[in-house]
Write a structure and sequence with these properties.
4-stranded mixed beta sheet; 5 helices; alpha/beta
Length: 196
């Protein structure tokens, strides 16, 4: 009887020790930034009382993610969320997007302070000059959420482009920065909306 009780105590102590080690590992990963609760930010347009539209941060997908994954994967996830567009509650609250929902992000490459976003051809479809510039603003602001000073180059199926869409927007010939779209940003003190 005494030996069985001693074995049970050893198992409990061993179990607690294993649990303690696991907690230490998880805590270490959180402190190191490898595992943390992060939210992806996308930029939609929000209708203003005067009828104008300004870029607004919308927080999507609050969840535990492997945040130690490479910057390219974080940006690709954010752009994928941007393409998915506002949900029904966001639409009812006045959020809109100029990004076509049938577009696909094919790849992301980061070199120093330059982000290359490779899309399929659907990213260029539809819209007039204002809508296309708004689309580019949404893409640039969303892609640079991890480094607001970075530039963005858009590729279509792996190739650099000289103009964007049927409107012939030439902003894409060089890296695009947030400051290039100041007419949409409202000073970047944009409203934030939390979306669970």
């Amino acid at each position: 009887m005494g030996t069985g009780r001693m074995n049970l105590q050893k198992k409990i102590v061993l179990g607690l020790l294993i649990l303690w080690v696991i907690l230490l590992i998880v805590f270490g990963l959180v402190r190191a930034g490898v595992l943390s609760s992060k939210k992806l930010v996308v930029y939609f347009f929000k209708s203003q009382p005067d009828g104008s539209l300004t870029l607004a941060e919308v927080i999507k997908q609050p969840r535990i993610v492997l945040w130690g994954s490479c910057l390219e994967e974080k940006i690709k996830s954010a752009i994928t969320e941007l393409i998915s567009g506002p949900d029904s509650d966001q639409l009812a609250s006045g959020y809109v997007s100029c990004v076509p929902s049938d577009a696909m992000i094919l790849g992301v490459k980061v070199e120093n302070d330059l982000i290359y976003l490779d899309f399929d051809e659907n990213i260029e479809s539809g819209g007039g000059i204002s809508e296309i510039r708004g689309r580019l603003a949404q893409i640039v602001f969303t892609a640079t959420q991890f480094n607001p000073d970075a530039g963005v180059r858009i590729l279509i199926k792996g190739k650099e482009i000289k103009s964007f869409s049927g409107e012939g927007i030439t902003d894409v010939e060089k890296p695009m920065y947030r400051k290039d779209f100041s007419e949409f940003s409202g000073g970047e003190s944009n409203e934030r909306e939390n979306t669970p």
